[in-house]
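Pair request: fold both.
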Amino acid sequence: MEQEKENSKAKELPPVRIAIIPFVVLIGLMTANLMVDTIEVPSEMILFLSTIIAALVAFFFLNTPYKKLERGMLKSIDMAMHANLIMLLVGALIAIWIASGIVPMLIYYGLALISPKIFLTICCISCGIVAICTGSSWSTIGTVGLALIGVGTVMGINPGMVAGAIISGAFFGDKMSPVSDTTNLAPAMVGTDVITHIKHMTYTSGPAIVISLILFLAIDIFFSPSAMEISQLENLQGLISNHFNVSLWLLIAPISVVTTVARGLPAMPALILGIFLAVLAVPIFQWNYLVFALDGDVSLTTVYSLILNILATGFVIDSGNIMTDQLFNRGGMASMMDILFLVFAAMSFGGVMEASGMLQSLAGATISKVKSIGGLVSSTLASCIFVNVTAANQSMAIIIPARMFAPTFRSFGLHPKTLSRACEDAGTVTAPLVPWNTNAIFCTTALGVATLDYLPYVFFGFISPMISLYLAYRDKTMTRIHEEPETILG
């Protein structure tokens, strides 16, 4: 009997007044860092300081054993290791795709084929299509998005707008793809199948992407900055062709990556394939660059050393043109190290918050006050966004709210797909909007655009949860359990 009481007590969540302390500290320090001119502290240090405070609160106020907090941090960091490895590979991919001429070739032909008058709309549509096929917003942003951000920059279009269109399309496609990890995770957490889940998301994601496209088209037509003169574009194309061989055969690498991912190959080996093909392409297509970079001393050992250095530290060229150099001097695994530091800090904070129960306490604080379907869905959406902010991880923003709200959704007689849709409508699409979230970190690193610069233009990320909220309060598309019992698993 005493053992049962102890177990019950162990399962009790911390009081909200205690659990909210680390979160208030985190938001307060982040706000001060942004608003006060005299404060310039790296975000990762703020996150580490918040982690220490969260650990002290858990240890002294909640009597959480240190070993449990340590295991929580390590478990949380382990969840991000896959993302960290992908970011290192993306850094290498960016550098070698530039060195091999793949990115310059895509920009060269992009300048000739894509009209700046509808550029943002094209960005959103093309990234959406590729992400649906590949099931990966990251692969889409790191490949197609990388080329599009270069084309947009050259055309003189606001990089924040271009990045917003790329991210909106990529995350829409990711949500609607049956081979996406988050699209499979959400229904698995609540007890329904992925196809039922995707069909149900069309009621929110469909209108959200249509409205987003209308907004991008409006910007294209009415508010887009004037593009560069034709002579300037032709001059830049000439500079690219002078320094790189822009053969269409280089399309083999990006097409191979997109095709293999679409056929089920995981992102990591697909990126390795893209790197390998680009490495082969360097001596085949960019021999003149090798001669220039190695001062004529082209041999197996010197090429080997150069390519590995490019993969490690990035591509560097001195073309004599500032725009060309700014466009192509980037990438490398080393460029990702600050980002990895930030990810470790963010996941450490999330790990302490979850291990101590403070994250669950804050996420579930409103459940007892829910009186309507609209209130239930709004609480779910808010919890997903909250976990994205505090735990800095998209998967946790789906898993924790799904676990917390599943019994309540059942008590309201709602089909599990209504919960899985709500989790994706906020947990997936708001992840790139939080500067220290792993998804935002990746987007910023891959595209070279700060989160706060692209944030206002990620229309899909704002509109999707708003439509979800509207449908809930109007009791539209809120399927009941008895209506589709055959699509409930378990």
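--- second member of the pair ---
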Amino acid sequence: METHKIMPVPLGRRPPWPSVYGQIARAFYGIEGVTVDRNRLRPLVIGNTRPRDRSEEEIVGYRMALNWIHTDSHKIPVTPETCLRLHSLAQGGTSGDAGRWKTTQNDTLEIFPDGRREVRFQPLAPDLVPEAMEELCLSYRNVIDQLQVTPLLATACFVLDFLCIHPFRDGNGRISRLLTLLLCYHHGHEVGRYISLERIIEQSKQDYYEALKTSSTGWHLGKHDVLPWFTFLLSTWRRAYREFEERAERQRPKRGAKTDLVEYALQSMISSFGIADVEQLCPSVSRDTIRLVMNRWRKQGKLEMLGKGRDAKWQRIKER
């Protein structure tokens, strides 16, 4: 295999909601082929039970890697050491080479319906991996620091190069998705805290593999085209933001909800009160909105103002 030297070209705090962990676990199951009892999936993801086999250890390990990213992403640098630690966590202690670069060649195979196998892609040889990963991380940090390309393009290229290097014997796919999440957080794209990117990728798994295959062609010669892979990632991020927007829209209070809240607070007032008292009962409502409702009630004969000035008191007028 031809030796490849990576060129410095465009390379590529709050934990997520519990439901996202479930989505990630299901996507992990779909992409990685990990088998686990459905009844044990939620306890494993939440952390209420101990793993009892290798598949469960991988689920728990992946959760630990996610916890690290979600809580400390701003402190995690893009270095080979970070990649090694993510691999060590994500493997869940299921193999002796967790957190270590590969020592044997791991070609990517394509299995056809008739059982025939062909090498789809040949990653770097094991002895080239340490230097390649060092240069990949260095090149990425350089293009980001020098503002040579947009951050999302740099992220896509970094992940593509990582997958082409294939630095680990096993688990390269899951580590690439963890790195994608981490780099997105570095650049302020934190939709992954609320929408599972893993699930979206799992739902478009065929497109994922097709884009990766197309963009990795010619990689060893430096003649590959990152655009198909970049386009796939852009579509993934766009779907995530669109889904988040739809969820947020469903959670948005109905029009007039704040007015209803103020009116409910006014109805509960028994003695005289000030605007500050209403604000305490309606912390999410602005003072201008509270004044607007109170003035409308006064015109309707439901409130009367006792005195004048900022400290004036108000009192409800009892209905006859």
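Observation on the second member. The beta strands are 108-111, 117-121, 303-306, 313-316.
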